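Q: What structure does this chain adopt?
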Amino acid sequence: MSTPTDAAEATESAGTTADPGSPPPTGSSIAFTATLVLLVGLALFGRRIFTGVFTGDGIRTWATMFVGVTIQAMPFLVLGVLLSAALTAFVPASFFAKALPKHPALAVPVASASGVVLPGCECASVPVSAALMNRGVTPAAAIAFLLSAPAINPVVLASTAVAFPGQPKVVVARAVTSLAVSMILGWLWLLTGKGGSWLRMPKNRHADDAGKLDVFRSSMLHDFLHAGGFLVIGAAAAATLNVVVPRSWLDQVAGSLLLSVLILGLLAVLLAICSEADAFVAASLTQFSLTARLAFMVVGPIVDVKLIALQTGTFGPRFAVRFAPATFVIAILASLVVGSWLL
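A:
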């Protein structure tokens, strides 16, 4: 039976404080929806618009790749958003506090492993982690969950398997690398002993009049509009990269393992693609090695421009300026190690 406390906990996990009767889409959601309409229009009518700027073959290639990546990824994006919204609305944050071991060092790997069975997008991972901290979960474990949930959940692993057919080693490498990164950063948080001065504990925010179905609906719409916008931007960037950038330059960058890993890692930070869809963008970057594309898929769900902004607003700038660079470096190193081992 639903209770006001459960509804408040679910609302806190979703980071929703508005009246449930108000329209869920925000200004940024409208901007991303406009981006989706614009890019689909470019895919359909770009040949006429850009005649004289690009060749006809280039426009056809761009449109084909953009639409192909978007259509392939969209079912997984929808499934991930639905599961994430259900988790946010119907599973109270107190459940995780009770399920984790009391010892912080043991709670970290358990929290990391829970991401395998608990779907959630990276947009929702920050408020969910904040809710866990407010329920007494050690920050190290909450951080481990923040990193693992959007990176190794079933929808992400399934989409990776579809994007890389016949290459199960890519799925294994992604799961192993992301799991390792989340645990390493959780344990590092414990070892530094300075987390208390870096982390601004998030405030408790309750919306007692928000029902579970209202939370589910608003979370689903919010996450889909945001993630859909980032998906089409990523698909457009991948298509543009393959059409505009000279093949010789791409081959030169891709020929250096370290440089290609760094380039695709930085690209993941800038593109901020939803984790349920980033594997399809990575699969389209065929000029690069599997290890470089692994770095793209590992970095994206745990450190990108939107996550840095969310972490700054939730946990404070002192946390974000330390956590984001550390996450990026460890993700790159882990991708190189696991990639050389498995790929």
